[in-house]
Design brief:
heterodimer; A: alpha+beta; Ubiquitin-like (UB roll); DNA polymerase, domain 1; five-stranded mixed beta sheet; 7 helices; about 35% helix; about 15% strand; globular; B: alpha+beta; Aldehyde Oxidoreductase, domain 3; Aldehyde Oxidoreductase, domain 4; 3 domains; seven-stranded mixed beta sheet; 28 strands; about 30% helix
Chain lengths: ~180, ~800
């Protein structure tokens, strides 16, 4: 579930002051620390893609409508085109490049196994949104999966195999944590 | 031949890079010294450009160059790739489509200036500072309105805004007579609304120019790199083709919209040379909505006549097809040779006449969008036959079955000659309907529907059948119909000395999974593991030539070219093996990766032969070394996939909201190489077709402003709008290509739209609301209004 924008600003707490204090940001991305001077208007998605050259996070629209740019910020899915880089000061970000840990994340494996992608452009955002869902609900129903993914547009798959991919990952995660 | 791979749902080779964020789309690419471009675009649909003041913008930080239409006055416009003549024989009207508007802007978003700066933000700031003095002029957006006397003119050279008119089929007088004699005539006037293609990757281009070698490079999110190179070099910029490299790297969906040669591609390439630095431009989504070539937009009147026994006697169609302000690359072919020629459908209709008027309007260009003409034809037929069944009080399935073309295999029985030029290759049309009915449980459904109606619930079922002409296309045939290109494909198979195989294909994958499907075919044909096969596509410097991917043609045409090259490799391999085994080439056979002397156990492996071809110490004297063949394959006919789609809906009485309960798609796409990938193609197409029926549609206001150019306003099908799909398949092999395949890319999008609309109408009739038609998309408001 994505936070509303105002709610989201509230969660930034003292960090939100950095918007007004200066343009130097410290962020941890996929476990690695970064410091950069940034323009106040720079979007987090452009910071990730252009400054850090993490191009797995995609831009599909300009109204936060497609979800291709979804990343995790302090453990929650955000659309990185709706977050200014300065708002991410002090935050920990995970992008699609940070999901595989020696082996593919169960969602990455699920999308491959269940043919949950075709052109691949929406896939990183889909995986990040689905990971957010599974972190809150490890055994979602089909309806819950569809509801969670409704902020991410896929034009290729008709969502059928994306739903199956998330179900595959949920099953795998549940098996792994089972005693 | 053993089939380790063909027919199996092999997981995709290309997935790993995409699920790990390592895809390489055009906007991901950064070249040294790269600049960024931003367009100044017309806010008016029709305006005189009285002046452009770039002085302030030139002084902005980081600005490298600003170009306007005046700078490009001597440069050609982008060409149209298909010529349709007027009924009179005159050539279609083909006004220049300039790279930047000069003098007049003819649709909202028409580019007026191009600003290049060091960064994207600087380019955006400077573009905002360009001042353009416009005089707004009246606009027309609807094609039927565009031809009316006194309508604002788009181009002075096209009186009445008519780009061309066109007719096909039986003489109109014969069709009129058949309709006059019919026991029942169903007439329907409707709009097949304008669609925004919405590939999720926005179009992106990088132009580069190397001053020392005089070589250009264009990275482009395209479905056909070689075609772009040809059109851009030969028709627009007049630069030497051998000095131009066009790369289509990973491309995030196309659906037709990335076939066409866009003005931005040529402009960016031209600019890169002018400033001797790379230039990148990536479309915003707003630009994509406004400017990626749209689909459909037909205003149609159609009449279907029946005799007293329910047999169709005649079909008469007139369509105003909206072309937009300029003729896009394949635009003239869509309402004509991809629409009029499909109006036979699966039915034995003896008299058909189709008349098309193509109209310029002050709107974005309309061109091929998934299905391209065939969805419009299918929608027309399947809405008419369904409405006829309701009007005549007969079962819609029975009415279809009564009029169905009987089965034919195209081998022992001839193909089916239609009234509208095409000859179908092979078909078992009854089979897909019967399979669909079994999956649905038709009798049970009708019972449930009746019970639901008694308790005030509106359940409906909608059927559609379709046929499409795919595997585009025999060059001589399309040439005679106005295509300005051949539509063959190129496939090169290079066996490396170690027996590993590189395949270079002119087809382009932007989601279709060619790296997997093509490798399955090659591995099985050569009897080697799939891991030993690499599929290379999308780069004009590495792939000899190609016509690209659209019209469900990759496997039927591109795959056939690869098979031709494999045949040449096997033939040469036999000669090499025969020489080494001291046998006659005619006595050799090749199977499962082994060249064997027939009837003996003397054999050599594919790897042995590969090595020998490159280390030719013991080798036939009259044979060249090497094992590398390239082939062109030009099909002898279109391929004709077909199917039956069934939708089950529930309509909420109080709100008019449509809930899609079930969707059944039974498709016959010929032989199937990878069922998983074919199912995926069907799913995606079905979702797009449902999108047209229920959610999507480009809206222009009377001034030519697109009023829903964002994902906030244009309703895309989302995950919670759709059910799980039920797919069924039947296989009727294509008789005229080596793999027997027909193509699966567009099928889902063609069959689904009328099935959904028919289901909604059926639901309304079940509750006593005798509604004949509702304008797509069937929003709750429109459905509710129709019930009142």
């Amino acid at each position: 579930m994505h936070l509303e924008y105002r709610e989201f600003l509230g969660t930034l707490g003292s960090n939100s002051n950095s918007v007004y204090m200066g343009n130097k940001i410290h962020v941890k991305v996929n476990g690695k620390d970064h410091q950069h001077e940034v323009e106040p208007r720079l979007l987090l998605v452009h910071y990730l893609r252009d400054t850090l050259r993490l191009t797995g996070t995609h831009i599909g629209c300009d109204t936060s409508g497609c979800g291709a740019c979804t990343v995790h910020m302090d453990g929650q899915a955000v659309k990185s085109c709706t977050v200014l880089a300065v708002q991410a000061d002090g935050a920990s970000i995970t992008t699609i490049e940070g999901m595989a840990n020696g082996q593919l994340h169960p969602l990455q494996e699920g999308f491959h196994q269940m043919h949950g992608l075709q052109c691949g452009f929406c896939t990183p955002g889909m995986i990040m949104t689905a990971a957010d869902l599974l972190s809150r609900n490890s055994n979602p129903s089909e309806g819950e999966i569809r509801h969670a993914l409704e902020g991410n547009i896929c034009r290729c798959t008709g969502y059928h195999n994306i739903v199956k991919s998330v179900q595959y990952a949920a099953e795998k995660i549940n098996k792994e944590v089972a005693p | 031949m053993s089939t380790n791979y063909i027919g199996k749902s092999v997981k995709r080779v290309e997935d790993k890079r995409f699920v790990t964020g390592k895809g390489n789309y055009t906007d991901d690419i950064v070249l040294p010294g790269m600049t960024h471009g931003m367009f100044v675009r017309s806010p008016y649909a029709h305006a005189k450009i009285k002046g452009i003041d770039t002085a302030a913008a030139q002084q902005m930080p980081g600005v490298v160059a600003i170009f306007t239409g005046a700078d490009l006055a001597e440069v050609n416009g982008v060409p149209c790739g298909w010529q349709v003549n007027f009924k009179s024989g005159d050539t279609m009207k083909e006004p220049k489509h300039p790279l930047l508007a000069h003098g007049k802007a003819l649709h909202v978003g028409d580019p007026v200036a191009f600003v290049i700066a060091e960064t994207r933000e600087q380019a955006k700031d400077a573009a905002d500072a360009v001042e353009v003095d416009y005089e707004e002029l009246p606009a027309v957006t609807n094609p039927a309105a565009g031809v009316q006397a006194g309508a604002p003119l788009v181009h002075d050279e096209a009186p009445g805004n008519v780009a061309f008119d066109w007719e096909l089929g039986n003489p109109k007088a014969e069709v009129d007579a058949a309709l006059a004699a019919a026991a029942h005539v169903t007439t329907l006037e409707f709009v097949n609304q304008r669609m925004a293609p919405n590939a999720i990757e926005p179009r992106s281009y990088i132009g580069a120019y190397d001053t020392t070698s005089d070589k250009y490079t264009l990275y482009t999110s395209t479905q056909n790199p070689h075609l772009i190179r040809l059109l851009m070099c030969a028709f627009v910029l007049g630069i030497p083709e051998h000095k131009v490299r066009v790369v289509g790297p990973d491309v995030g969906g196309g659906f037709g919209s990335k076939i066409f040669h866009y003005t931005e591609e040529a402009l960016i390439t031209w600019c890169a040379q002018k400033i001797s630095r790379p230039v990148k431009w990536t479309s915003t989504r707003s630009e994509a909505f406004m400017l990626d070539a749209h689909g459909r937009d037909h205003v149609t009147k159609a009449q279907m006549g029946f005799d007293a026994n329910g047999k169709i006697t005649a079909l008469k169609v007139h369509t105003y097809a909206n072309m937009g302000a300029f003729l896009s690359t394949f635009a003239p072919a869509v309402p004509t040779y991809l629409h009029g020629t499909l109006l036979q459908g699966l039915y034995t209709t003896p008299k058909i006449n189709v008349d098309v008027t193509a109209v310029f309007t002050h709107t974005n260009a309309v061109d091929a969008y998934r299905g391209a003409g065939r969805p419009e034809a299918t929608y027309l037929l399947e809405r008419l036959i369904d409405l006829s069944a309701l009007e005549m009080g007969v079962d819609p399935v029975e009415l279809r079955l009564k009029n169905l073309i009987p089965p034919f295999d195209g081998v022992t029985q001839p193909g089916y000659q239609t009234q509208v030029a095409l000859q179908y290759d092979s078909g078992n049309y009854q089979g897909v309907i019967e399979k669909g009915l079994a999956m649905l449980g038709y009798a049970d459904f009708r019972k449930a529907q009746k019970e639901a109606a008694e308790s005030g619930k509106l359940l409906g079922v909608g059927f559609s059948t379709y046929i499409e002409a795919c595997g585009i296309a025999p060059s001589a045939v399309v040439g005679s119909l106005g295509a300005r290109a051949g539509l063959y494909e190129v496939g090169q198979v290079r066996v490396q000395p170690t027996g590993k195989v590189s395949v270079f294909t002119g087809a382009h994958s932007h989601g279709q999974g060619h790296e997997t499907t093509f490798a399955q075919v090659v591995a099985d044909k050569l009897g080697i593991p799939m891991e030993d096969v690499d599929i290379v596509h999308g780069d004009s410097d590495t792939v000899a030539f190609g016509m690209g991917t659209y019209g469900s043609r990759s496997l039927a045409v591109g795959g056939s070219a690869i098979i031709k090259s494999i045949d040449k490799i096997v033939e040469k391999g036999k000669k090499i093996a025969a020489h080494k085994l001291e046998a006659a080439p005619g006595d050799m056979e090749f199977a499962n990766g082994k060249f064997t002397v027939k009837g003996t156990d003397k054999s050599l492996s594919f790897g042995d032969i590969a090595l020998t071809a490159y280390v030719p110490h013991v080798y036939p004297a009259d044979l060249e070394p090497g094992l590398d063949f390239s082939s062109f394959y030009d099909p002898t006919n279109f391929t004709y996939p077909f199917g039956c789609h069934i939708a089950v809906v529930e309509v909420e009485q109080e709100t008019g909201k449509v809930a899609l309960k079930r969707f059944i798609a039974v498709d016959d796409v010929g032989n199937v190489i990878n069922p998983m990938i074919v199912d995926g193609q069907i799913h995606g197409g079905v979702a797009q077709g449902i999108g047209q029926a229920l959610f999507e549609g480009v809206e222009y206001d009377e001034n030519g402003q697109m009023t829903n150019a964002s994902y906030m306003d244009y309703c895309m099908p989302r995950a919670d709008d759709l059910p799980m799909f039920e797919t069924g398949s039947q296989v009727t092999p294509c008789p005229h290509n080596p793999l027997g395949v027909k193509g699966a890319g567009e099928a889902g999008c063609i069959g689904s739209t009328p099935a959904v609309v028919n289901a909604v109408i059926d639901a309304l009739w079940s509750g006593g609301h005798k509604v004949r038609d509702i304008l797509m998309p069937l929003t709750p408001e429109r459905v509710w209004t129709a019930m009142q």
